[in-house]
Amino acid sequence: MTETPHHPPITLSPIGVIASDYPDKFGIPRQPGLAPAARASLILVPPFDDPLAVRGLEDFSHLWLTFLFHLSPEQVGAKDWTPLVRPPRLGGNAKVGVFASRSTHRPNRLGLSLVELVEIDTRRGVRLMLGGADLVSGTPVIDIKPYLPWAEARPDARAGFAPEAPLKLPVAFSDAAMTALAKRPDGDSLHELIQQVLAQDPRPAYRQGAEARLYGVRLRDVDVRFQVVAADAVARIEVVEIVAA
Ligand code: SAM
């Protein structure tokens, strides 16, 4: 019998780094596109910051990014390997194989996100302006590829335990939160971002329904404090206050 070839470890060099509206992991939607108002820049680093390397990319509306889940624990060798994970989508109880999931806790810690390409700035190095990314600021990016809808869009595909987009909760803003937004030049876009992020109910999967507890999500340079309240037996998010982070 022939032996399966075993490749030695591979070293990858990040081509760039993300600066995004998300300073922390907590609150980031669990897939790209769920908060289209989220803005991010991908700043290419030398020697990959050559404008020639992105020539023609401006004609594509969407990109695949391969990146490193740099804030997830590193899995070194077989002993840290966990074949089963608990997806939040299943309430954090049921387990599935790591390769049947989009978990951040995976061998090699590689992530894959489809993002909107808004603009390319090549005035100093290369900066790609992106929409809808699900990436924390500081994420190292390994590769960029243009998205080909004719080959890659499969609306009829089966999607296992996550067949539909997650349900959204209604989001209401207190007077204090609205006043804080009104004072900012980016008030409208921040309002939209907060609305889209909180509609995803960022609480841990096992938390459901209303609770008295106050949560905080960091977006841009603010801390958004919110509560989940019950209105006519339906859970609703209420933004209590928006304060400097
Ligand atoms: N779309 C990607 C994928 O499928 O590979 C990411 C999916 S993963 C479930 C999305 C979550 O990753 C976000 O909610 C955020 O909390 C987390 N995340 C984003 N950037 C990260 C990073 N650099 N390191 C670790 N976790 C990160």
Layout of strands and helices, then pairs:
Elements: E1 16-20, E2 39-44, E3 62-68, E4 84-85, E5 96-97, E6 110-121, E7 127-131, E8 140-146, H1 149-152, E9 171-173, H2 175-182, H3 187-198, E10 211-219, E11 222-231, E12 234-244
Parallel strand pairs: 9-12
Antiparallel strand pairs: 1-2, 1-8, 2-7, 3-6, 3-8, 4-5, 6-7, 10-11, 11-12
> Could you say what the CATH topology of the largest domain is called?
Elongation Factor Tu (Ef-tu), domain 3
How would you write the strand order of the largest sheet? 1-2-7-6-3-8
Which H/E pattern describes the elements? Answer: EEEEEEEEHEHHEEE
- Mean pLDDT across every amino acid position: 94
Which CATH C-level class of the largest domain is it? Mainly Beta
What value does the Rg take, in angstroms? 20 Å
CATH homology group of the largest domain: YaeB-like
How far is the N terminus from the C terminus? 61 Å
- Total tally of structural domains: 2
Supply the CATH architecture of the largest domain: Beta Barrel
Number of helices: 3
Beta-strand residue percentage: 25-35%
Query: Which ligands occur here?
Result: S-adenosylmethionine
Which structural class should the secondary elements be placed in?
mainly beta
* Number of DSSP E strands: 12
Helix content: under 10%
Overview of the molecule:
The protein contains three helices and twelve strands, in the order ββββββββαβααβββ. The mean pLDDT is 94. The chain is globular. β6 and β7 form a beta hairpin. It has a six-stranded antiparallel β-barrel. 10% of the residues lie in helices and 32% in strands. With 245 residues, it is mainly beta. It folds into two domains: 101 residues, Elongation Factor Tu (Ef-tu), domain 3, CATH 2.40.30.70; 74 residues, YaeB-like fold. α2 packs across α3. Bound molecules: S-adenosylmethionine. S-adenosylmethionine binds next to β6.
